[in-house]
Amino acid sequence: MNAALEARGLGKRYGSTWAIRDLTLSIPAGRVVALVGPNGAGKTTLLQLAVGLLTPNAGEPEIFGWSPRRNPTLVLARVGFLAQDRPLYRHFTVADTLRLGRELNPRWDQPMAEGRMRRLEIPLDRQVRTLSGGQQAQVALTLALAKRPELLLLDEPVVNLDPLARRQFLSEVMEAAAADGLTVVLSSHVVADLERVADYLVILASGRLQVAGDLERLLADHRWLVGPASEAGRVRGTVIQAGTGQRQCRILTRDGSAPPGWMTAPVSLEDLVLAYLGNPSAGALPAPAAIPA
Asked: Is the overall model pTM greater than 0.85, yes or no?
């Protein structure tokens, strides 16, 4: 399958601090990707490198095989990017905002943009500053979608939105992904939101790739094992997280097996994410294939 976003040995340094270091990653096209990590993990840096807003100190990201630095016109026409602060001109009307999008993007779909605003009941003559946070997020999403991208990068797009606005925003993203075959990379701290929409998981920790893979497969490969603490040493597989009391222990393993009599339970996305973030030395991915020269 073709890669929508690919990197090999990617690095970005601010002074002596590496925000992204030695990152090799291949995200397949057509997936909805949950990009997860603590603050400072490098999520925003990765997305900004992908659209050419930052210059890497090592390696090179590629979008559908094109470098955002060497081929900005080819890349930017295929990518919709929504930053965390949802930058909009506050004194523009919604109509002015859509007109700006039309002037800047050769593949702009004005009927789709205006249709979304009507369906969401966002008046075209309203100034952006008078809209609610959820409405502003929808206008910003419309700017990203109406350029008809093949890859949609969303950096914490639902931060500071109430639960209802958050759900509506993500529903709109999923509808667009299903209708147009978009690849979506969604960075968010709200794991419950990601669990409803994502089918591929990427976890960053301290600027390095920790986990990447098909979400259903990752969840199937991990399980909770619960049994006597005295038998913890008989558990097989890679231990990601372990909690041991005086009599019982609870262990999250990858490809693990337990002694007879132990209980097993499936893991949730939240279990998986928190376990890996709590154990930065753990990893659950094979090295992706190198980008052809």
From this structure: yes
